[in-house]
Amino acid sequence: MILYVNACVRAESRTNRLAKALLNKLGAYEEVRLTDLALKPLDGESLGYREAQIEKQNYHDSIFDLSKQFAEADVIVISAPCWDAQFPAVLKIYLENIYAIGIVSKYSENGGPRGLCKAKKLYYVTTVGGGYDQRFSYDYIEYLAKHAFGIPETELLCVKYLDIEGNDAEEILSRAINNIDEMY
Ligand SMILES: Cc1cc2nc3c(=O)[nH]c(=O)nc-3n(C[C@H](O)[C@H](O)[C@H](O)COP(=O)(O)O)c2cc1C
Predict the structure, then answer these.
(1) Ramachandran area for residue 38 (φ above 0: left; ψ -120 to 50: alpha; else beta)
(2) The pTM is what?
(3) Pairwise CA distance, residues 62 & 156, whole Å
(4) With 0-12 CB in 10 A as exposed, 13-18 as middle and 19+ as buried, what is 182?
(5) Pick from 121, 114, 116, 166: which is nearest to 142 by CA?
(6) Could you tell me the distance, in angstroms and rounded to a whole number, from the CA of residue 9 to the centre of ligand 1?
(7) Which residue's alpha carbon is nearest to atom 2 within ligand 1?
(8) What would the CATH number be for the domain defined by 2-183?
(9) How far is the CA of 26 from the centre of ligand 1 (A)?
(10) Could you tell me where the beta strands, DSSP code E, fall in the chain?
(11) Which one, 5, 59, 90, 104, has least CB within 10 Å?
(12) What per-residue confidence (pLDDT) applies to 119?
């Protein structure tokens, strides 16, 4: 199963358009639109509840549904526009919510994480108003994928300079979408 984690916020999101061009090449997919989920950041209560369920190995609880979906995907595509040099907060909240020990990751003998996810590849799709510094978004997602989730391969698809005065954003995006058609 291909899982599409859509962290785009604007209804007419260009990042979503770019991701959909990739997904059309990859095949049928399941979409999780994060802004539709009303996910909440973990707080003392929800974290305590989750830890208690993990302690009891009660993985049937519905709080683990998104974690299981993520862990069982064969390929994952995350789309998120560049916001404040990173990505919209809803993506961090999603990651916080899916990162359940025993489903997406477990602790190895030396205390570090060992990934339990099935996916062989994760794509991170983004668009940026200006230039792109991948350290705060793609590099972080790549780190989690490889070191925490056990996903061996990641790929960045980025289209930048969309909001630079004088640039034709539509043309830049269309060119990128055509490139996807040729590359994948
Ligand atoms: C809240 C917000 C924060 C943004 N932060 C940045 C930024 O830090 N650097 C940048 O180059 N562009 C920034 N932009 C511009 C977006 O990255 C750019 O317009 C992007 O293509 C929007 O993607 P979308 O069409 O999928 O919403 C920001 C836009 C918004 C709305």
Answers:
(1) left
(2) 0.97
(3) 31
(4) exposed
(5) 121
(6) 10
(7) 83
(8) 3.40.50.360
(9) 26
(10) 2-6, 29-33, 75-79, 105-107, 113-115, 121-127, 153-159
(11) 59
(12) 98
Span 139-183, pLDDT tens digits: 999 999 999 999 999 999 999 999 999 999 999 999 999 999 888
Taking the CA of residue 88 as reference, the ligand 1 atom at the shortest distance is 1
Tell the residue nearest (CA) to atom 4 of ligand 1. 83
Write the DSSP symbol of residue 166.
T
pLDDT of 183: 87
What pLDDT does residue 31 have? Answer: 98
Ligand 1 neighbourhood includes 7 CB (under 6 angstroms): no
Over residues 16-43, mean pLDDT:
97
Q: Where are the domains of the chain?
A: 2-183
**Residue 9 alpha carbon, nearest atom of ligand 1:** 27
Residue carrying structure tokens 């972080």: 140
